[in-house]
Design goal:
Elements lengths: L9 E2 L18 H24 L3 E8 L5 H8 L8 E5 L25 E6 L8 H4 L5 H20 L2 E9 L2 H13 L9 H8 L1 H14 L7 E5 L3 H19 L9 H11 L6
Helix pairs in contact: 1-8, 2-8
Length: 276
């Protein structure tokens, strides 16, 4: 099993998927995570500048249980980034119009152009997760989707897009704690829906669906990274550390030297000593 980053983040081998045996907790204090996040966010901003300069395209996917911390992690990931180059799409149920087309069709307009980072809070994996668990499509249909999704991601990667997929692995015990917190704290009640409660009751069914998703869509083109999510502070650090490790391999940071033509204009306007 290839280690992709520090601590307990790893790529997933399809033959060893059994989420019931995978650790969901990693200790870390909030103060320790905040100290690390500040530096990690600054490093990510430096990579964003290179991504823009060289017109890379980055897709980041987050999947996991309700209340697994996807939104909070995305907020920390994007905290220092230039908002003009990063797009976050929370994916919900398809509209009535979208239901009339292929389920992957609605995602095409959302994929990044050169120089952009696109983050999906849930994604096209809904076909093999909620649509499977809630029996919104036939078994034949959701089973076929594994190959369709793998092909979609291969198309993107073959065309130069970098795909990073995170699965936030939360225990049912911790999910219960966080859902109750949403009930008890007025500023968090907006997050709670009936669908969250239904998904909590269907946790075992979702565990089966997640396990299959990880096994059948963990490909060389777009491997999954498993993030223990019971401790949200450790999870956030692990996500940023993992992302930076991947970018270090795929998006080498280039020189920040100023373009010679631009430097000439700067010296003309502001003097030679500006660029000493």
């Amino acid at each position: 099993m290839q280690i992709m980053a520090k601590q307990n983040v790893s790529s997933i081998a399809a033959s060893v998927i059994d989420l019931k045996t995978v650790v969901t907790h990693e200790p870390m204090r909030r103060a320790d995570s905040e100290a690390q996040l500040d530096e990690l966010q600054s490093q990510l901003l430096a990579y964003q500048q290179t991504i823009f300069k060289h017109q890379h395209r980055i897709v980041i996917v987050f999947e996991g249980a309700d209340a697994a911390g996807k939104g909070g992690t995305i907020a920390r990931l994007t905290h220092k980034l230039d908002p003009r180059g990063v797009y976050v799409y929370p994916i919900g149920a398809p509209s009535s119009k979208e239901l009339t087309g292929h389920y992957l069709q609605r995602f095409w307009p959302l994929f990044p152009r050169g120089g952009q980072i696109t983050i999906f809070d849930r994604s096209w994996y809904g076909r093999v997760l909620v649509e499977r668990v809630d029996q919104l499509v036939s078994e034949t249909t959701w089973r076929r989707a594994y190959d369709e999704i793998n092909q979609l991601e291969k198309w993107l990667v073959d065309d130069g897009t970098i795909i990073v997929k995170f699965f936030m692995h939360l225990s049912q015990e911790q999910q219960k704690i966080r859902l109750i917190e949403r009930v008890q704290k007025p500023d968090k009640r907006w997050k709670l829906t009936q669908a969250d409660l239904d998904a909590y009751e269907q946790f075992d069914d979702y565990t089966d669906a997640w396990s299959d998703m990880l096994a059948y869509t963990n490909t060389p083109n777009a491997p999954w990274l498993l993030i223990p999510a019971d401790n949200k502070h450790a999870a956030r650090v692990n996500v940023l550390t993992s992302l930076l490790a991947i970018l270090a391999e795929r998006v080498p940071k280039s020189s920040q030297r100023i373009n010679p033509a631009l430097a000439k204009s700067v010296r003309k306007l502001f003097g030679n000593d500006v660029l000493e």
